[in-house]
Specification:
Largest sheet: 11 strands, mixed
Oligomer: single chain
Number of domains: 1
Helix content: 25-40%
Number of strands: 15
CATH superfamily: Ribokinase
CATH architecture: 3-Layer(aba) Sandwich
Number of helices: 10
Bound molecules: 6-O-phosphono-beta-D-tagatofuranose
């Protein structure tokens, strides 16, 4: 079984704007839609679309939390979220204008998790997670969640010898390394911060991956339009995604993780993992929402992804 953990759930309010977003102007909307936010939730959307068994959990609050679960259940996701009383799941604002230069994302901190929610989540994991399950933590924890508490959640997963996948940054990424995650997926900025060294070119990142040997089975560094690098053992592979008509890149990184997790589940090669992740991430970017992709697009995009072996 695969479990996805979203500690800081969100509903995305996606506002399509006429023309280019302009300061001190009355910017007119073309449309407003709501979609699933929060990162690990997106991994579950991908897995459910691929008919891979998974359970989405984490902490929700109020009507917005119910709305997020409803949107997920419409996509066939098995949701087991913990409801924290007198709190409201946040709304992330995504502004997309007609410049074609990418979206603006404005996120709130999210409500702090109380002891009851934390203990309920840890108990859920302790009772359900089995050896060889995959557990995905993705998204920024809410409201400066104590990093030791974050670590205590990861420790429950490791206790059961399950595979830990972590898409986190800063102190949370550092904490995750203490639990020998199976896979981490920092983006280029989060990776440079983590290794405390500057990388510009692909070769810089390749050399950094070679020199920083982490206690991680698979290290992925996502590089935006430049694709992503994966290191597994002595293997380093670069995937370059095809050029696409980008509509809304929001969620593309999370859908990329969804593709990675699907291939981990299938014990696929690193090359297959990267190709699938890049194709699914690209398909997401071709959609207006923040939580949808098109399986028929993915089939076409798979063949267009370029793979370069670096070692
Ligand atoms: O990556 C896309 C996204 O999950 C959006 O859906 C939006 O909810 C935002 O990121 C949340 O990011 P955060 O890191 O605050 O959890």
């Amino acid at each position: 079984m695969i479990y996805t953990i979203t500690l800081n759930t969100a509903v995305d309010r996606i506002v399509q704007i006429q023309g280019r977003l302009t300061r001190k102007a009355n910017n007119k909307t073309k449309s407003v839609q709501y979609d699933i936010g929060g990162k690990a939730t997106h991994v579950s959307v991908v897995l459910s679309a691929l008919e891979i068994p998974n359970i989405a959990t984490g902490v929700i609050g109020g009507k917005t939390g119910e709305h997020m679960v409803h949107l997920m259940e419409l996509k066939g996701v098995d949701c087991r979220f913990i409801e924290q009383k007198n709190c409201e799941t946040r709304e992330s604002i995504i502004l997309v204008d007609e410049s074609g230069e990418g979206s603006y994302m404005i996120t709130q901190k999210g409500f702090p998790l109380n002891d009851e929610s934390i203990e309920t989540l840890k108990k859920f994991l302790d009772v359900n997670v089995k050896k060889e399950d995959i557990v995905v933590f993705a998204g920024s924890p809410p409201h400066e969640l104590d990093v030791e508490i974050y670590g205590s959640m990861l420790s429950v997963v490791k206790k059961h010898d399950a595979k830990l996948v972590v898409d986190a940054a800063g102190a949370y990424l550092k904490k995750a390394l203490e639990y020998q995650p199976y896979l981490i997926k920092p983006n280029e900025f989060e990776y440079q911060e983590f290794i405390n060294s500057k990388c510009d070119s692909i070769e810089d990142f390749v050399n950094a991956l070679k020199t920083h040997d982490l206690d991680v089975e698979v290290t992925i560094v996502s590089l935006g339009k430049r694709g992503a690098l994966a290191k597994k053992g002595d293997e380093i592979i670069h995937v370059i995604p095809p050029t696409i008509h980008e509509v809304n890149e929001t969620g593309a990184g999370d859908f990329f993780v969804g593709g990675l997790v699907a291939k981990i589940y299938e014990n696929a090669s690193v090359e297959d993992m990267l190709r699938t992740a890049a194709a699914i991430g690209a398909s997401k970017a071709m959609q207006e929402g923040s939580a949808s992709f098109d399986l028929s697009d993915v089939k076409e995009l798979l063949a267009k992804c370029k793979i370069e072996r670096k070692v």
